[in-house]
């Protein structure tokens, strides 16, 4: 048999295999799940096991039977519908998570197999496991009033404008009396909601501050380091340092729209002033261009130092147009190698945040 025939046989064989695999993939008849991921939040060891329930709808013409449901951890057990699910019928999977001594965020995998899908559909149970500390004095070293915290500040991390960010902060009541937040919390800004779990928090009891941060209500973008005040029924007030970075949320852009949406382009993003005297201000202009077919809006200009002054002639740039970003750096009181950052927030949905780095060697 010559090489060309062997080559032809291989092509036919692999072609048939790909058709067969594609057919198998298309033949998978899955349940339509209400949610494929459930986040059960903070799980405190002393409260015991936590349960969640997944609901699946059969939109297929064939009857479906759940044949096997397995998890990737002994800490997670399941109970599921044993009855046959006819078309438009709903089945459920109850998942029970039993916390252990391993703390931190978790994501447990649940594989669901049926008579119509031998490969298995995948569900996820997520949360934060909070084991009970052996030494409360060491576990909560930072005291604010009678409350003990693990850290000296609350870091909310990245907050997006499409939905509130929820943070669970461990606390311990080292006081001799129960503590309970007032219902109004007049000192809090409207973009923050704070609850205590449990409420009231008894003396020598561990609990949580549940903080909800609404990025859209914040009405601003960028990094924030602020202090919030919480009021308690006994008229005690405590002040907590809180850090966050707020970003505007944009939906994913289809490939067909990438040249239509606003697109921000910088003439340069790395500025090196080289050696400069500390007594002299230096300036630089960077051109911001709009490569898209819709108006580009500059939402905000920010820097990590008050020594940088920024100005731009226009904050809305039409298609194919450009605007000059004028930068002034005052090195007064500084010495040595220096790095500063400028952050540009815009409505470019593909790259909404751009950074300009400024380098210098101050003499």
Automatic annotation (TrEMBL):
Transmembrane segments: none annotated. This is DUF1573 domain-containing protein. It comes from the Bacteria. InterPro entries: DUF1573 (IPR011467), Ig-like_fold (IPR013783).
């Amino acid at each position: 048999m010559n090489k060309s025939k062997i080559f032809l046989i291989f092509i036919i064989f692999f072609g048939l295999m790909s058709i067969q695999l594609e057919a198998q993939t298309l033949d998978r008849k899955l349940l339509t799940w209400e949610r494929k991921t459930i986040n059960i939040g903070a799980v405190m060891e002393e409260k015991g096991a936590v349960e969640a329930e997944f609901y699946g709808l059969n939109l297929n013409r064939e009857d479906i039977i759940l044949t096997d449901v397995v998890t990737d951890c002994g800490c997670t057990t399941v109970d599921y519908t044993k009855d046959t699910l006819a078309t438009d019928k709903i089945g459920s999977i109850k998942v029970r998570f039993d916390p252990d001594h391993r703390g931190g965020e978790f994501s447990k995998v649940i594989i669901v197999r049926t008579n119509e899908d031998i490969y298995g559909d995948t569900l996820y149970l997520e949360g934060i496991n909070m084991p009970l500390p052996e030494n409360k004095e060491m576990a909560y070293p930072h005291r604010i009033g009678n409350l003990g915290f693990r850290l000296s500040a609350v870091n909310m991390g990245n907050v997006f404008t499409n939905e509130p960010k929820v943070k669970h902060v461990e606390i311990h009541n080292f006081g001799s009396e129960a503590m309970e937040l007032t219902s109004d919390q007049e000192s809090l800004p409207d973009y923050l909601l704070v609850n205590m779990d449990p409420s009231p928090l008894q003396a020598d009891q561990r609990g949580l501050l549940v903080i909800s941060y609404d990025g859209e209500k914040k009405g601003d973008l960028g990094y924030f380091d602020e202090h919030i005040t919480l009021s308690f029924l006994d008229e005690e007030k405590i002040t907590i340092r809180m850090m966050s970075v707020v970003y505007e949320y944009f939906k994913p852009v289809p490939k067909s729209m990438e040249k239509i949406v606003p697109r921000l382009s910088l003439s340069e993003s790395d500025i090196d002033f080289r050696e400069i005297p500390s007594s002299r201000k230096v300036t630089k202009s960077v051109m911001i261009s709009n490569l898209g077919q819709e108006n580009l809006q500059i939402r905000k200009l920010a820097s990590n130092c008050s020594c940088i002054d920024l100005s731009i002639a226009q904050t809305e740039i039409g298609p194919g147009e450009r605007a000059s970003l004028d930068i002034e750096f005052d090195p007064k009181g500084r010495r040595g190698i220096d790095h500063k950052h400028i952050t540009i927030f815009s409505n470019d949905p593909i790259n909404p945040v751009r950074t300009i780095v400024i380098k210098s060697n101050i003499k």
